[in-house]
Amino acid sequence: MNFYLFELTALEESFRRFAIHGDTRATGKDMHGKNWSKLCKDCGVIDGKNITLTDVDIVFSKVKKKTCRTITYDEFKVALGELARKKYKDKTGEEAEAEVFKLIEGKAPVIAGVTRAVASPTVSRLTDPTKFTGSHKERFDETGRGKGKAGRVDIVDTSGYVSGYKHRGTYEKKVNKPTEGRPM
Description:
Elements: H1 2-20, E1 30-32, H2 33-42, H3 53-63, E2 70-72, H4 73-87, H5 93-104, H6 121-126, H7 149-152, H8 171-175
Helix pairs in contact: 1-2, 2-3, 3-4, 4-5
Keywords: Cytoplasm
GO molecular function, one term: tubulin binding
Subcellular location: Cytoplasm
């Protein structure tokens, strides 16, 4: 009897994992139809023969409350029971439910089709600083790291009298020049 309670907690854990999948605001207390379908696909409840995606959607609509768009954990168990009787027609209701529960227990959503960075020759050529020539080569230091803004923009020296003034720092010397040999 105690073993059965452990199964339920594993089932409830799976329910919560799928309930919060893809929704940052989800609490894990109820599950949307999209996540219910994902659970049935990922855990192998849908077999394409006895249970199809349409069957899963019909059972979801049947067990949820009329005004709600989600199902609770208790409604989830009822829905699994209906699918179990349809999937395992040769077994009793309780045996069928136990089989479906085993399919789902401890499972988490499968994350497939996530975009990854592809190491294509084009991308590697464009991101390799040793391949850059001309003025673009100046954007990187000796180690190949980018210089940031200093590598992209000509930084103008505005410290002189006018831009590009060659004799910077000589004005004070000219003004304070000693007046030797000049009449006062």
